[in-house]
Amino acid sequence: MRNIIFGIFLMLSLSSLISPVSDEIVAAFKTGNSEEIAKHFNTSIDLSIPENEGVFSNVQAQLILKTFFSKHQPSNFKVVHQGDSKNNSHYSIGNLTTDNGTFRTYILYKEMNKKVTIIELRIESDE
């Protein structure tokens, strides 16, 4: 019995170490606010969205994301899964609902100076 309680406590403790993507980023995806999302970009970011893929400066990536949101107006964003990745990074997978359908998003980020810093962003059609 003691081992079961210890096991449950350990799992709960470890799951709290996973740092969820911030509420600010979730809200920015819901409204299509590329400027707010870009505030969390690293100096360069690996970006993959329909019609654009590559490593871009944070300014370039913000403009590309702004163009994407102008073509696909978001109405909702929901994180469906998150976890830890290599090199002290974390990821969040979510569904971005737009007026042109739903897109699967993958956000890879690290915490740098107590701030979420996005190092990779993928937005793919969910069809």
What attributes characterize this protein structure?
127 residues; globular; alpha+beta
Write the layout of secondary structure elements.
Elements: H1 2-15, H2 23-31, H3 34-38, E1 41-49, E2 52-57, H4 58-71, E3 74-84, E4 89-98, E5 101-112, E6 115-125
Parallel strand pairs: 1-6
Antiparallel strand pairs: 1-2, 3-4, 4-5, 5-6
Walk me through what this model shows:
- There is one protein chain.
- This protein is α+β, with helices and mostly antiparallel strands.
- The protein has one domain (19-125): Roll (Nuclear Transport Factor 2, Chain: A).
- The chain is built from four helices and six strands, in the order H-H-H-E-E-H-E-E-E-E.
- It has helices spanning 2-15, 23-31, 34-38, 58-71, and strands spanning 41-49, 52-57, 74-84, 89-98, 101-112, 115-125.
- Strands 2-1-6-5-4-3 form a six-stranded mixed β-sheet, with helices on one face.
- The longest helix has 14 residues, at 2-15.
Count of individual beta strands: 6
Return the structural class: alpha+beta
Roughly what fraction of the amino acids lie in strands? over 45%
Structurally, how many domains make up the residues?
1
What is the overall number of helices?
4
Distance between the termini: 47 Å
Mean pLDDT: 86
* Helical fraction: 25-40%
CATH class categorisation: Alpha Beta
Give the radius of gyration.
Answer: 16 Å
How are the strands ordered across the major sheet? 2-1-6-5-4-3
Q: Tell me the major beta sheet.
A: 6 strands, mixed
CATH third-tier fold name: Nuclear Transport Factor 2, Chain: A
Element order: H for helix, E for strand: HHHEEHEEEE
Low-confidence parts, pLDDT < 50 over ≥5 residues?
A: 9-19
The CATH architecture classification is Roll
Give the overall silhouette.
Answer: globular
